[in-house]
Amino acid sequence: MNVLERYVAMDYGPAPEPRGEADKWLKARNTEAGLFIGGAFQAAESGATFEVIEPATGRPLARVSEADAEDIAAAVEAAKKALPAWRAASGFDRARVLYAIGRAMQRNARLFAVVESIDNGKPIRESRDIDVPLAIRHFIHHAGYAQNLERDFPGYVGAGVVGQIIPWNFPLLMLSWKIAPALAAGCTVVLKPAEFTPLSAILFAEICEQVGVPKGVVNIVQGGPATGTAILRHPDIAKIAFTGSSEVGRIIRRETAGSGKKLSLELGGKSPFIVFEDADLDSAVEGLVDGIWFNQGQVCCAGSRLLVHESIDDAFIVKVKDRMNHLRIGDPLDKNTDIGAIVAAVQLDRIRNLVEEGIREGGIAWQPDCALPEEGFYYPPTLITALAPSNVLVQEEIFGPVLAAMTFRNTEEAIELANNTRYGLAASVWSENINLALHVGPQLKAGVVWVNGTNMFDASSGFGGYRESGFGREGGREGLVEYLVPARAKGAIYKPMPLVEPDRDTAPAGMLLIDRTPKLFIGGKQVRPDANYAMRVADAKGRFAGEGGLGNRKDIRDAVSAARACVAWPAATAYNRAQVLYFLAENLSVRANEFAFRLADLTGARQPNARSEVELSIERLFYYAGMADKFEGAVHNPPLRGVALAMHEPVGVLGIVAPDEAPLLGLVSLIAPALAMGNTVVAVPSQRWPLIATDLYQVFETSDLPPGSINIVTGRIAELTLVLARHDDVDGLWVVADGDTCRIAELESVGNLKRVWTNAGKAIDWRAADAEGEAFLRRAVEVKNIWIPYGD
Ligand code: NAD
Hints:
Layout: H1 3-9, H2 20-28, E1 35-37, E2 40-42, E3 49-54, E4 59-65, H3 69-88, H4 91-107, H5 109-120, H6 124-152, E5 156-158, E6 161-165, H7 171-184, E7 188-192, H8 199-211, E8 218-220, H9 225-233, E9 239-243, H10 246-256, E10 262-266, E11 272-275, H11 281-293, E12 305-309, H12 313-325, H13 345-360, E13 364-366, E14 382-385, H14 392-395, E15 402-408, H15 411-419, E16 426-430, H16 434-440, E17 448-451, E18 470-471, H17 476-481, E19 484-486, E20 520-522, E21 525-527, E22 534-538, E23 544-549, H18 553-565, H19 568-571, H20 574-590, H21 592-603, H22 607-628, E24 634-636, E25 642-650, E26 653-657, H23 663-676, E27 680-684, H24 690-701, E28 710-712, H25 717-726, E29 732-735, H26 739-747, E30 755-758, H27 774-779, E31 781-789
Parallel strand pairs: 6-7, 6-9, 7-8, 9-10, 11-12, 11-16, 12-15, 14-15, 16-17, 17-31, 26-27, 26-29, 27-28, 29-30
Antiparallel strand pairs: 1-2, 3-4, 5-19, 10-18, 13-14, 20-21, 22-23, 24-25, 25-31
Helix pairs in contact: 4-6, 4-8, 5-6, 5-8, 6-7, 11-12, 20-22, 21-22, 22-23, 25-26
This protein binds nicotinamide-adenine-dinucleotide.
């Protein structure tokens, strides 16, 4: 055999990572007493356990205690008991604990990596080089946030006891994404890992014990959906943080509706991987391997939809197939393995079924000629071509090593195809032309965009989705905010003003000289309500004061269409939006007297009060005008040669249901931040005092707001809130109303998982300083992180 022949014939020899230490740990640790509650390991009260299977072999690996509602109650009790001291601890004390956790994980990094690979089936190279280092980084990064919390977020405190539910694809990493910010914020936690992968969390609990995390600050419970449900339903949990499927995300949204619990959802995705004709194709192929075959494709942000420019499609696909031929599938503990095992038999079946369905629908599958291990759960890397956009493999999250490939003709089509999904988690853009990449990035509906790269994560940069990929971010300042609440105690119960339907003949003498037709304000025009019905409005003395339009479902639909069609406002420069809002303030100030009299007449407020409500409304418009070009994003410096640009983008079409309390100021306080950040708005003003809003149209009409940027539909609050909540083209909904209306808004928002903020049925003092400010602006934006590596 000559050198060339030897070279050609050369193959990898196995290079297994020893598992002895992990097996020893597993044997020594009684996982049947695997609940970590109040700083001690214990069995479930009921004695129940569940079996954990090793994906690489399909054989039993461990039995782990299964918590039920009683165990959850004990865990929440422990977390409650620990809360006051943990919250009161100095930032430095909390920072020291987070840092100690990170350091102890570092010391045990190899054990963590092996345990993770055995439990999940992921290649050791990934758990060793990605999962574990990123998890450690999360704790160490958040130590700094803990120490600086009061300076960073004056007037805020930790939300309280938080319930955290995580998936099986990155068990340790997801745990760190949940626990690190919660502890930094001064919360105590009850965390439930996924039932397929409970082990690294048990090892993590040992670390907490070792480094002296105060008892009850971290509680880890084990089990499946029933255990999760018990967490959701516990009344003393102040916040739920969930990562998992969109399907379960919906269940959780429903389950927590009206409970007053804060909620963040990190859900599924179907992320595009876009290759332009000027891309470095070899790099793009490597990126793609990482994008879709990392962790067997069981990645929420997997680049599972390949979009290639048609001029390079053939050449690119040849390269992809060639690379697929060289992927090594097999033992997760072998350091040469690229693709390990699928987490469970049921997941493997799901992948098979979806691929079969996609083929039946016309897709063509290609798989490399590779031998799969005889036992365990394996699926070969798979490429599907000839796909129609409606094919199940293009639409559904497969959560397996399956790539759906399509072509595009031009940039516009690439963007359209990329956004043709109900998800919006991540996107990867490949082009040597940075101008093109940065032209496309902001147009993609995704929380993360990677330029010439993929799967880059860092504790400093928020991660999370648009649309049905959920709401809230993990990592960065925006991730921390998810665990904070205003320190000020919540107000009294919100009470809607009693409605009065006066007879027309009760009008004060002279008022009806000129009858006014009740109108709505849609698409920049005053229009009659669809059904042409009106509601009679009383003044403070119960006399007839005028009529408001009685809007219905069709009016809301029209208003949403107008808001969606208004592209000028989100596209306007921030400076331009600032000027329009200043102009709006100016025009309101010209009519300040008239508004003050109207308010006094209608609400019975004394003149000075009415006047100050108008003045504060003008001041608030001024404030948000000023903030339009100041509430900006950030540039992160993650540990790579490059930057991550955290851009603030408008949420989109926002529904706003305004309160009866301070009918002018309340309305202005909500629509001004929404408009300042470039959202288009469909507002439903106070049902009791709609005439304030109808007077406001005339101010809008003279203030250069583009048609459709602000739409107002008057009518019955409960009915119109329901329509807005169910409308799938409304991206966000803010409701200030009674508790029941707030609950309905949350409950009915599950269709497109719109981001909902409500007053949780509590009164808001609209004159208070905290009724304006960053909290409102934050709600009005999505943070998109665009990662740009640089260097030649
Ligand atoms: P899953 O939704 O089935 O389960 C997630 C967790 O929720 C598990 O702990 C499970 O026990 C629990 N659970 C299931 N039903 C429940 C219920 N009715 N009530 C309370 N808890 C319940 O998801 P999975 O299969 O474990 O994970 C895969 C999904 O996670 C994918 O959709 C993936 O995209 C998503 N994911 C998202 C992110 C992200 O950051 N966006 C990260 C990782 C995974």
